[in-house]
């Protein structure tokens, strides 16, 4: 099974999203953090389950109606970012 590695920028994005929501609604922030972490931890089981990404070589898991987990599959699964669905990306 492939390990999941988070890029530092992806961790920063994840933490910024959770901090923003936590300032307004701590229970919602905790639920969203758990949802994103759970989705990332399940990626090794079915790495190609989610749609091809907008950037070549990436895939996108819609982990919440508003948030997308961007990752790349190789010898390891690299979480490249966590983006808001309405955010202009890439």
Supply the key terms:
90 residues, 38% helix, alpha+beta, 2 helices, single chain, 5 strands, five-stranded mixed beta sheet
Descriptive overview:
The structure is a single chain. With 90 residues, the chain is an alpha+beta fold. The protein has two helices and five strands. It has helices spanning 8-24, 26-42, and strands at 4-6, 51-52, 59-64, 67-73, 77-84. Strands 1-5-4-3-2 form a five-stranded mixed beta sheet. A hairpin with a 3-residue loop joins strand 4 and strand 5 (77-84). Helix 1 (8-24) runs antiparallel to helix 2 (26-42). The termini are far apart.
Major beta sheet, strand line-up: 1-5-4-3-2
Q: What composes the largest sheet?
A: 5 strands, mixed
Question: What is the helical fraction, as a range of percent?
Answer: 25-40%
- Which consecutive residue ranges, at least 5 long each, have pLDDT under 50? none
Helix- and strand-based class? Answer: alpha+beta
Radius of gyration: 13 Å
Termini Cα gap: 29 Å
Oligomer: single chain
User: Treating each run of at least 4 consecutive H or I residues as one helix, how many helices?
Assistant: 2
Specify the overall morphology.
Answer: globular
Total count of strands: 5
Mean pLDDT: 95
Along the chain, the helix and strand elements come as EHHEEEE
How much of the residues is beta strand, in percent? 25-35%
Task: Summarize the entry for a quick read.
With 90 residues, the chain is α+β, with helices and mostly antiparallel strands. It has helices at residues 8-24, 26-42, and strands at residues 4-6, 51-52, 59-64, 67-73, 77-84.
